[in-house]
Amino acid sequence: ITIILLLHHEINPDTLNIDRWSAIHYFIQNLFDGIYPYAAQTHLGGYGSPFPIWQFFHIPFFLMGNISYAMIFSFLLFVIALMYYEENKEKKLFIILLLTLSPSFWYEAAARSDLFYNFILVFITILIIANNKVSLQKNTLLLGAICGLFMSTRISVIIPFFIFLFPEFIKISVRKKLTFIGTIFLAFALSFLPLILWDFHMLFLFEFNPFVLQSRQGNLFDVAFIIGISVFFSLRWQDNFFRLNEYIAFALFAFIAFTYLIKLISSNFADNIFSSAYDITYFNMGMPFLIYSLATAFLRNNEYSKDSKKAFLDKD
Question: Residue 307: exposed, middle, or buried by beta-carbon count in 10 A (0-12, 13-18, 19+)?
Fold first, then answer.
């Protein structure tokens, strides 16, 4: 935490060539100034793509003077959730160690990016739901609301929740299926309602509205691909939380890689390799799930090696 604060103190955010932080900062500043929030431009002249819930989530940190404090808050929540829900002490420490040794984590901290901790919060939520055995059968409205509100952060969070919930979704009744889907879209739509009433045209018809910005990186091939692999992985994790995280990480990495491959085929790769079209930081979406999977796999293999060695010595 001290290092993150030091990075924020030493690095002038206006010198950064990444504007995720200012897409949130100036949205909230416009909001408090009575100006339509999505009309705000970033310090690089772009427009913000985060959906409303993610913007509103940062208001307390904006009032504290730095929206990037949200990363520290999310990291602390991550540690607390691990301490509470993960029984293996070694595993807790190893997960935290892997996270803090990850270059992508420190890049996100230095760049004041919100992408990594958005998915840390997704991981925490799935961890809590799984450990408390919150089922779609009994908590249809609750889980629908959670998914809808998270969908109002950035659209890609659908992938982890889909892989997590789809196996149970196909088993519940049609009425509950419709209730769940309806609740998702209702929660999602309600998060936009104040902005719709404020300026419908700016929200939906503006050239750089958040829907356009969040969907411009993909196409129908990408959508078909991610639906296919999400369904495939969702039906294979079979109540194994380690496998769930492994498959979520793989699906997110594969989705980004596939998106870049399509761009490579359809455009001049050499001219665009350093453009935002090939922003490799999107791979960070899968990092919380990958780190959990790596820690689990490493400790399992370590325990297996110890047991094998003990069995061999006992045999002798």
Answer: exposed
What mean pLDDT comes out for the span 135-152? 96
pLDDT at 307 over 80: no
Q: SS3 of 268, please? A: coil
Task: Tell me the C-alpha to C-alpha distance, in Å, between residue 69 and each of 118, 151, 190.
Answer: 13, 22, 27
Crossing angle of helices 241-266/115-131, nearest 10°? 150
**8 Å CB contact between 255 and 226:** yes
pLDDT tens per residue, range 241-274: 999 999 999 999 999 888 888 777 776 655 555 6
d(CA 55, CA 170): 33
The pair of structure tokens assigned to 131 is 């450990």
pLDDT at 156 over 80: yes
Looking up tokens 């959990």 gives 292
Residue 235: partners with Cβ closer than 8 Å, 6 or more residues away: 166, 167
How many Å apart are CA 119 and CA 71, to the nearest integer?
Answer: 11
Sequential DSSP letters for 88-153: -HHHHHHHHHHHHH-HHHHHHHHTT-SHHHHHHHHHHHHHHHHHTT--TTT-HHHHHHHHHHHHTT
Would you say how long the chain is, in residues?
316
Contact between 210 and 38 under an 8 Å Cβ cutoff? The reply is yes
Q: Helix (H, G, I), strand (E, B), or coil: what is residue 179? A: helix
Q: Which pLDDT does position 313 carry in this prediction?
A: 45
Degrees, nearest 5: CA angle 127-247-91: 50
